[in-house]
Amino acid sequence: MQVHSFLHSDTETYTHVLADVQHKLCAIIDPVLDFDAKSGHTATSSVDEVLAFVREQGWELVYIIETHAHADHISAAIHVKETLGGQLVIGQHITEVQKIFKQIFNFDMSFRTDASQFDILTDDGDTLALGDITITAMYVPGHTRADMAYLAADAEKTVVFVGDTLFAPDVGTARCDFPGGDAKMLYHSIQKLLALPEDTIMYLCHDYPSKGRKHCPTTTVAAQKMGNIHVKDGINEAEFVHMRERRDATLSMPRLIIPAVQVNIDAGNFPQPEANGTRYLKVPINALG
């Protein structure tokens, strides 16, 4: 097993490439589309670096895995699929998120809330085969109703892709104030992850390093239990929920939440062009935050 991590500097998001080198098979986890909110322009230069790397290795892309419908960046899954193929994977509870945001954005009846935009829907305990690597889905709601972590194991090691449940120990944990979020759920989801063997490597979806520290894509279960500022050993559910809800009340909405969510719940698809050939996104007024 190999994992290669690529930082999208504008959103501080990590895209990971998980590979069975012997069988030349890989999965791409949480790919990011470049998006300029000021102009509405999209670009693929960042994710194209990931795709070029996969091509250079001669690997076949089997899966494009989304840990959840992100609120801080737009998914590049459609571009990845059109370029290299692969099946698009997300947790089956994405249907709950689709229904919540269909109402917020007042989408018409043509917007599907059955997750049929995706190829594979996973639930807790489901497995995907990637050569000799077994990928096991772990349902970890709280940040959203649909968050999944993915445990990857072969004969040599086990790693876990945690999405937005946990950040580096000096950063803490995901916020829970988006529609459908729940701090109690997040606490119990994190406990599932912290119950993994302490030497398990955790691959982060984001890193927001404190001053003097460089970005890093990984941590370990042991490091989280010892030092996570929000949820290390000794912090109980009530303490965590109080901290999380109090902290969330001070946070502004992510810079890209409005474009990101409405695209990502539709598997990375932008709305169909209107009569003039231009695609448009909606901005709900006074509906978030």
Q: In a nutshell, what does this entry contain?
A:
The chain is α/β, with parallel strands linked by helices and 289 residues long. It has helices at 45-57, 77-84, 94-105, 183-194, 221-227, 237-248, 257-264, and strands at residues 2-8, 13-20, 25-29, 32-36, 41-43, 60-65, 74-75, 87-91, 120-122, 127-130, 133-139, 148-153, 158-161, 201-203, 218-220. It has one domain: 4-Layer Sandwich (Metallo-beta-lactamase, Chain A).
List key phrases describing it.
single chain; 289 residues; alpha/beta; Metallo-beta-lactamase, Chain A; six-stranded mixed β-sheet; 7 helices; 15 strands; 25% strand
- Total number of helices: 7
The CATH superfamily name is Ribonuclease Z/Hydroxyacylglutathione hydrolase-like
Separation of the first and last Cα atoms: 41 Å
**What does the largest sheet look like?**
6 strands, mixed
How does this structure look, described?
- The chain has one domain: Metallo-beta-lactamase, Chain A (4-Layer Sandwich), CATH 3.60.15.10.
- It has helices at residues 45-57, 77-84, 94-105, 183-194, 221-227, 237-248, 257-264; strands at 2-8, 13-20, 25-29, 32-36, 41-43, 60-65, 74-75, 87-91, 120-122, 127-130, 133-139, 148-153, 158-161, 201-203, 218-220.
- The model has no long low-confidence stretch (mean pLDDT 97).
- It is globular and about 55 Å long.
- The chain starts with a strand and ends in a 25-residue tail after the last helix.
- Strands 1-2-3-6-8-9 form a six-stranded mixed β-sheet, with helices on one face. A six-stranded mixed β-sheet has the order 10-11-12-13-14-15.
- β1 and β2 form a beta hairpin.
- The protein contains seven helices and 15 strands.
- It has 289 residues and is of the alpha/beta class.
- Residues 12-206 form the Metallo-beta-lactamase domain.
- This is MBL fold metallo-hydrolase.
- One of its GO terms (biological process) is glutathione metabolic process.
- It holds the Pfam family Lactamase_B.
- Keywords: Metal-binding.
